[in-house]
Amino acid sequence: MSLGRARRDFPALRRRRGKRPPTYLDSACISLVPRATLNAMEEYYAEYPACAGRSFHRWSETVGRRYEEAREAIARFAGASDPTGLIFLRNTTEAINLVGQGLAWRRGERVLITGQEHNSNLIVWQRLAAERGIRIEVLDLPGDGRFPSEELEERLAGGVRLVSVFHASNLDGRSLPIREIVQRAHDRGALCLFDGAQSAPHRAIDFDRVGADFYAFSGHKMLGPTGTGLLLGRRERLEELRPLVVGGETVAWSRLDAHELRPPPYRFEAGLQNYAGVLGARAGIDYLVGCGLAEVEARQRDLNRFVTRALADEPRIHVLGPTDPADRPSIFGFTVDGIDPHDVALFLDSGYQVLVRSGMHCVHSWYDRRGIAGSVRASFYLYNDLYDARALVRGLHELLRRVPSGSSAKVRSPIRSRTDPS
Ligand SMILES: Cc1ncc(COP(=O)(O)O)c(C=O)c1O
Predict the structure, then answer these.
(1) Residue 4 to residue 359: CA distance in whole angstroms
(2) Average pLDDT of 295-301?
(3) Is 192 annotated as catalytic?
(4) What is the pLDDT of residues 110-134, one digit of tens each?
């Protein structure tokens, strides 16, 4: 499929009364969905709107089969040969919680994270530190995108039970070398969990080849419907996890005084599942595969390069993360001297119909340590084009022209009093 035609497949991008829709540059938060995703969800509700696995009638049989086919297709997409290692959940946050809260921790055992983790990969460890006495080790990442291999080795040598880090950052788009991390961690007897929320939409996961123990990601960032989370795990590792929620569907049998859990993945999928969501997520991923991940990444990189170059002569704009856009292909994160990030976002929306995200991007700890109020993030996906990139550049040039350096002028009523969403 040609990416040039992809926009037509996204209902949210249709022209309204002959006008182009807003420029959507917030896909790192949630992606738009193609018609194929909506069709799959509609088909479920219109054709076989039943519950899988509980009834013996034909609708139940059909949805059960489709649900398991979705598991196989998504596992294949992720490079996992064992589909029973794929668990359907609500989001990446739940997937990370399942691993964190599901492991049998002993007091003093350590988890290693970076200093740039999403709250989804931080708060759970803080809670476990408070409640079960685990220790959190932090690996600081240099701002230029370099990976601190030696520091990682030193931390691992100190004894780490689990390395839990992002694959690609939602803050500045940089990626971590996950193969190297797995190798070093396994050499030292540590497990590895990757937060793949920002990488799975853009590049091959290659779960088997990478050799990670767990990998968490979200369908709603990769053309799927809201509330579709995925956890991949090695079979033997999943068997060690205590389910977060138990009840219907999780047990092989029960008596009034006992029960036996089903094997993974079913012991982790309690209660009636999000069938429409799972089928929609599969359709979204099929669509993505049809576009070609390499083409998707190339398009994002080209748009990011265009924006980066076009704004390179604006000394008041500071890009976060690696200098080369190829090392942060889907994300252009930046601060603007003298202008609040939320004001930048409001200006771009109201004046240029450009929708970006502003604030702390659920990585409050990173901003807190640097005393920065927040940043602006434009994130690209396969349906963005040069028009979108130009709109962003034009908007920012105009903003800088209107608010001269050192000026105290406000661009628009600020929303700084609003609490930063997390
Ligand atoms: C790096 C990263 N991790 C985790 C999450 C949380 O994902 P979800 O909202 O699907 O739980 C996000 C969401 O933006 C993210 O960017």
Answers:
(1) 32
(2) 95
(3) no
(4) 999 999 999 999 999 999 999 999 9
Range(s) of the domain holding residue 333: 3-30+292-402
51 in the same domain as 84: yes
Q: Are residues 272 and 299 in the same domain?
A: no
* Residue 93 in contact with ligand 1 by CB distance below 6 A: yes
Neighbouring residues of 15: CB distance < 8 A, sequence distance ≥ 6: 21
CA of 283 to the centre of ligand 1 (A): 21
Specify whether 322 is located in the same domain as 297: yes
- Residue bearing the CA closest to ligand 1, atom 7: 92
Give the span between the Cα atoms of 342 and 419, in whole angstroms.
Answer: 11
Which stretches within 225-274 are classed as H helix? Answer: 235-238
Confidence of residue 414 (pLDDT cuts 50, 70, 90): very low
Average pLDDT, integer, range 229-254: 96
Out of 27, 93, 228, give the residue to mutate to test ligand 1, the one with the largest number of ligand atoms within 8 Å of its CB: 93
Read off the pLDDT band of 102 (50, 70, 90): very high
Residues 6+ apart with CB under 8 A from 295: 3, 382
Claim to verify: residue 182 and residue 77 sit in the same structural domain: yes
- Write down the pTM of the prediction: 0.95
